[in-house]
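Below is how a single chain appears once it has passed through the pipeline. First comes the sequence as given, then the structure the pipeline wrote out for it. We keep one example in the README because the format questions we get most often are answered faster by looking than by reading.
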Amino acid sequence: MSAPPARAARRRVLTLATVLAVVCGTLLWWLAPFGPATPSGSITFSTGVRTGVYQRYGVLLRQAMAKDLPKVSVTLTDSEGSQQNLARVASGEADLTIATADAVAQYIRDRRPGFERLRGCARLYDDYVQLVVRRGARVRTVADLRGLRVGVGQDGSGVRLIADRVLAAAGITPSRDVTAVPVGIDSMPEMLENGTLDAFFWSGGLPTQAVQTLSERTPIRLVPMDPTLVQALRDVGESTRHYRSAMIPADAYAAAQYGQPVETLAVANLLVTTAEADPALVEGFTRSVIGSRDRIGGQVHPAQLVDLRTAVYTEPLALHEGARRYYRSVKP
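Resulting structure:
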């Protein structure tokens, strides 16, 4: 016997409703975005002096992030260097920065304001300490700087921290035995050129454009710093163990090195944020840093040395959870 007309009609309605629900659900599934929401908002990135590697790297990284994180607005601010950068991030004045590992360790050791908030995102490239003099200068070692006018970096810079330490390791008291001039890489080359400086320290990636340009217009050379001096630095204490002996390759500054490598010391740069930073945002810009290595490295040579295998090692800072998520996502 066939079902009564009313019952058959109800079945047809229920069947049609079920079909519509399935169709609507499928459409919603197709139209909905996959994965987590794209990070949005604005961040301030504290970089460095205008002619230094930090500032140039920051400009190019902002361009990469504009492509990878289109909903995130990045503002760059110049700075005197690592020490000022850390103070800005720790205080909330900036959200992201680059600083050398020795400056980070000293900031923590001194228990500076907000030190406990700092977190690492990536180990980037190494800075190389460069002691620059005119080609005819009688300076052959750091100890020969005694009595001279020496550019030591601005007060808030990582250069100033390391210059004072190198001078002390060579038996020189910066406040007494040299005329320490607190200027940055934006001023030191011209001052050496016009005779108002006898030498200057710089700590940066290789090659640094300001030193490269100086070498092409003025006869200069680099003063070596041998492993004995580096060991004397490392023996000072906890925050100096981040230094290592290194060689400036012979072709870093061809006009200044005459085909010879130069002994020096190196220290790693870290990408730094705070514990409170949004994990999704930190994961995004860590991904952008690693992914943009080759693009940025074509214009800023040190960026070519950013390596996924070592980027995770952000000592003395704990790794931010967002960065940890990124490294886990790309782990073989």
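Residues 22-35 have pLDDT under 50 and may be disordered.

See the next section for the split statistics.
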